[in-house]
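hey
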């Protein structure tokens, strides 16, 4: 931070030259990469040097380049809406971030709307009245009045949408957690036959946060389009982990969150395929920021951090997907060697390379979590949003998993800081947890 009365005007070092310089030089990720840039404070230091953090689907450690860009952005004094030089510098930094986020998902920068996170992005879009104004000067095409969302969506979709009761229905999923597209097609056909004035909005996440299962979004979009339905996909868990191209997916709108790909918490985005979607009653009105979709002075450091995280995740994607899939496979084969009866949820479906959800018979997730935490492993039971509450996972329940098995479900999610030593540390700790488990000892003795 610059001392004295002169405040910096220049945007963070994020220009195209800087981006090009970083290209190729992206984080050669070494074991416990986080150790190289520990946050301030003794506790953080201890955490960084002794623990294996396997909870990247809950949130990712911030990438060092992100933290650096954010601290530069924090030192910028201007409001991005101001016309003076300080304001223009802040605006410039936001527009660079917009380009970086757009590049991650094959969108145009002008079709990105920044929000306070994935939850807000989903809550903004999932509203009756969303309409497609393409080719219609007065936006006459029917606004959506029925939401069809998959049963395994994140709670911020299932519970955070704004459709009244009776106008939102869950698309069932099969035992692998894949949405039932035959059901979707039949439901859309029935809607067309019985309520011809109604238009549906289909919401199908690209990848599940608990199991990592990748959904058939492209196929769902083809079906939806035949019936004139609009399509939204929550790509919060997929972005930065698998290739993402809004055109190829054929959806109308995607939603993203920065903190799942090495960016800061509290910033996300709505990504439109075209500028044709409209909503008469937008939730946040005021200063008209973000093309009127999201009023409020922009979170400059957060947005800048999101841009750098999107850029870094995009550059590293191909290599990281292979590296993480190998680590994930080692973790799963290690667990199965320790406890052959372990179920790996969604293993028969395409999955994110970084995620493994599993349960060993006789193991209670909450007990195992505590033991693993004491052994220096950070992971999760089911979704992070419901951890701390002993609650059956709605995802596993929708997949028809036996309640006794889902009570033992753990999720390991790997990311840019994960290395082989983390997997070894986990397997050693899980072996001890299994050995100490009274149910398993009783089973072995019987
Ligand atoms: N969607 C999915 C699939 C998620 O996993 C999450 C967070 O866990 C969200 C949405 C919410 O994102 P945010 O934490 O940015 O509000």
């Amino acid at each position: 931070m610059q001392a004295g009365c002169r405040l910096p005007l220049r945007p963070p070092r994020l220009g195209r030259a800087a981006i090009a310089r970083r290209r190729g030089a992206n984080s050669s990720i070494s074991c416990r990469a986080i150790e190289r840039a520990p946050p301030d404070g003794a506790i953080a230091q201890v955490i960084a040097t002794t623990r294996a953090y396997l909870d990247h689907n809950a949130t990712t450690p911030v990438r060092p380049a992100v933290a650096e860009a954010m601290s530069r952005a924090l030192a910028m004094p201007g409001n991005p809406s101001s016309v003076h030089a300080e304001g223009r510098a802040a605006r410039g930094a936001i527009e660079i971030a917009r380009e970086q986020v757009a590049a991650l998902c094959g969108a145009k920068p002008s079709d990105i709307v920044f929000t306070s996170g994935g939850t807000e992005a989903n809550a903004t879009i999932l509203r009756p009245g969303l309409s497609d104004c393409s080719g219609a000067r007065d936006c006459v095409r029917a606004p959506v009045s029925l939401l069809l969302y998959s049963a395994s969506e994140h709670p911020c979709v299932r519970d955070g949408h704004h459709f009244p009761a009776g106008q939102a229905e869950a698309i069932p999923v099969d035992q692998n957690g894949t949405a039932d597209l035959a059901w979707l097609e039949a439901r859309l056909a029935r809607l067309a036959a019985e309520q011809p004035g109604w238009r549906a909005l289909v919401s199908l996440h690209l990848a599940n946060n608990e199991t990592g299962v990748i959904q058939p979004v492209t196929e769902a979009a083809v079906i939806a389009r035949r019936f004139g339905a609009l399509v939204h996909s929550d790509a919060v868990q997929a972005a930065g982990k698998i290739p993402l191209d809004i055109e190829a997916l054929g959806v109308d709108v995607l939603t993203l969150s920065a903190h799942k790909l090495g960016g800061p918490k509290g910033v996300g985005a709505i990504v439109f395929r075209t500028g044709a979607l409209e909503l008469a009653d937008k939730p946040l009105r005021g200063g008209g920021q973000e093309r009127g979709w999201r009023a409020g002075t922009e979170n400059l450091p957060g947005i800048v951090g999101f841009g750098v995280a999107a850029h870094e995740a995009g550059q590293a994607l191909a290599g990281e997907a292979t590296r993480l899939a190998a680590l994930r496979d080692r973790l799963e084969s290690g667990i199965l060697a320790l406890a052959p009866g372990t179920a790996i949820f969604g293993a028969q479906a395409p999955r994110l390379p970084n995620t493994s959800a599993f349960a060993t018979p006789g193991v209670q997730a909450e007990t195992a979590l505590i033991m693993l935490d004491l052994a220096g492993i950070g992971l999760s039971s089911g979704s992070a949003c419901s951890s701390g509450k002993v609650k059956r996972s709605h995802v596993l329940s929708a997949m028809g998993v036996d309640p006794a098995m889902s009570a033992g479900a753990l999720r390991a999610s790997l990311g840019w800081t994960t290395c082989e030593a983390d997997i070894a540390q986990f397997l050693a700790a899980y072996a001890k947890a299994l050995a100490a488990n009274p149910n398993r000892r009783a089973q072995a003795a019987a």
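Residues 317-445 form a domain with the Aspartate Aminotransferase, domain 1 fold (CATH 3.90.1150.10). The first helix runs from residue 16 to 22.
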